[in-house]
Amino acid sequence: MFQKWAAMLGVIIVSVNYRLAPEHRLPATYHDVIDALHWIGSMKTESDEDGRVEAEVEVDPWFDSHDDFSKDFVAGGSAGGNIVHHVGVWAASGGNVEIQEKGMILMYPYFGGEDWTPSESLKSPEFNLEQSDVMSRLTLPPG
C-alpha cells in the first residue's frame, strides 16, 4: 500500500515498526515513533557559517537530497492514528524533535475511553466491545 502511495504522490514514506502490547505497554510505542522522527531529523544536513556540513550521525545522502524537511507529515491508521495523534500533541507541546512536521494524517484512528459511548453501547456485531476493553487493558500502562 505505501509503495503505491509513494509512487502515485511522489513522496518518501518511512514506515515505522513499533513495539506491540502486551509485551510492551504504552508509552513504549510512542517512544519508538519519536525515535523514528529523531532519525528522520538526523538525516538533514546543515552547514555552519563557513559552509562546512555538520551532522551528528552518518547521513544518508539520498534521503538528505530528496526529503523536503519542511513538508514532512506523520500518518497512521487505526492504532497508528492514535499514535500519530499522541506523538503530534507531544511535539506541538514542546517535545524536542528535529523535524517540523507539516501536519498529521489520521486514518480511522482508534480512540477508546473508560465508558462506552451511546453508539458503542448498541453492541454492533461488527465490533466486539468486550474484546476491545480487554485489548485496552493489555495496552495501557498499569494503573
UniProtKB/TrEMBL annotation:
<dbReference type="InterPro" id="IPR050466">
    <property type="entry name" value="Carboxylest/Gibb_receptor"/>
</dbReference>
<dbReference type="Pfam" id="PF07859">
    <property type="entry name" value="Abhydrolase_3"/>
</dbReference>
<dbReference type="InterPro" id="IPR013094">
    <property type="entry name" value="AB_hydrolase_3"/>
</dbReference>
<dbReference type="GO" id="GO:0016787">
    <property type="term" value="F:hydrolase activity"/>
</dbReference>
<protein>
    <recommendedName>
        <fullName>Alpha/beta hydrolase fold-3 domain-containing protein</fullName>
    </recommendedName>
</protein>
<dbReference type="InterPro" id="IPR029058">
    <property type="entry name" value="AB_hydrolase_fold"/>
</dbReference>
<feature type="domain" description="Alpha/beta hydrolase fold-3">
    <location>
        <begin position="3"/>
        <end position="125"/>
    </location>
</feature>
